[in-house]
Design brief:
By secondary structure, this protein is of the alpha/beta class. A six-stranded parallel beta sheet has the order 1-2-3-4-5-6. Strand 3, helix 5 and strand 4 form a beta-alpha-beta unit. Helix 2 crosses helix 4, helix 4 runs parallel beside helix 5 and helix 8 runs parallel beside helix 9. The longest helix has 16 residues.
C-alpha cells in the first residue's frame, strides 16, 4: 500500500534562500485541476493575468479584472497543497498609488489564501513595492516585457536590445529588488541583460 507524501507549502524565506542554489520551478495555473496536477512538481504556482488571453480569449491582459484574478487565485490555492501561490495584480489595480495597491493586494490575499502578489514595473513602482513589503504583502516583481504596457511597446517585443533600454531594465530590476521584492520575473529580455540582472540582484530571478 502506497503512502501519500505531503510537504509543507513552500514559503517566501525558503525561496529567498534558493538564490544561487537549486533552481526554482515555476509554472502558471488558472484552475484547481491544473493546480492539482502541477503542485507536486513545482515550487511556485503563478496565477497569471495571462488567463485573459489563455482562458477568456482576450487579445491582451488589459481587460482582466480583480474579481477574475481572485476567482482563479482561490481555485489554484484550493487545488494545491505544496506550492507557494502567487497571484498577478491586474492592470489598474495597483498603479494609482501605494494605498490602492495595498487595498487590492490585501483583498487578493484574504479572498484567495495566496502567499503573495506579482506586479509589473520598475523604478516607478519601487515605492509601491516598499509600501506593500512593510505591510506584510509579499511581492514578486516583473521587469522587461510587461504585458500590461503592450500599448506602450506597440506589441509584444523583445526588450533590451539597445544599450539604453538594457541599462533601464537593469536599473528597474535593482530598484524593485532593493524595495523588498522576494523574487522577480524577467520576461522576454535578451539573454545578456537577463544574466546581468540575475548577477546584480540578491533575490531569485
Amino acid at each position: 500500500m502506497s503512502v501519500a507524501t505531503h510537504r509543507e507549502r513552500m514559503t517566501v524565506p525558503a525561496l529567498r534562500r534558493r538564490k544561487g542554489g537549486e533552481p526554482i520551478v515555476v509554472l502558471t495555473a488558472y484552475t484547481a485541476p491544473q493546480a492539482k496536477a502541477l503542485d507536486p512538481h513545482v515550487d511556485i504556482l503563478l496565477v497569471g493575468d495571462s488567463l485573459g488571453m489563455v482562458v477568456y480569449g482576450l487579445e491582451t491582459t488589459l481587460a482582466v479584472t480583480l474579481d477574475m484574478m481572485i476567482a482563479h487565485g482561490a481555485a489554484v490555492v484550493r487545488g494545491s497543497e505544496n506550492a507557494c501561490v502567487i497571484v498577478d495584480m491586474p492592470f489598474g489595480s495597483y498603479q494609482e498609488s501605494p494605498e490602492q495597491a495595498y487595498r487590492n493586494a490585501a483583498r487578493v490575499m484574504i479572498e484567495t489564501g495566496c502567499t503573495g502578489v506579482k506586479l509589473e514595473g520598475g523604478t516607478e513602482m519601487a515605492a509601491t513595492v516598499e509600501f506593500l513589503n512593510r505591510r506584510s504583502v509579499q511581492v514578486m516583481g516583473h521587469v522587461g516585457l510587461m504585458p500590461q504596457s503592450v500599448n506602450t511597446y506597440g506589441g509584444f517585443r523583445v526588450q533590451g536590445r539597445a544599450n539604453e533600454d538594457a541599462r533601464a531594465i537593469v536599473a528597474d530590476a535593482r530598484a524593485i529588488a532593493d524595495a523588498g521584492a522576494f523574487s522577480m520575473v524577467i520576461e522576454c529580455v535578451v539573454e545578456p541583460v537577463a544574466h546581468e540582472i540575475t548577477k546584480s540582484v540578491k533575490i531569485p530571478t
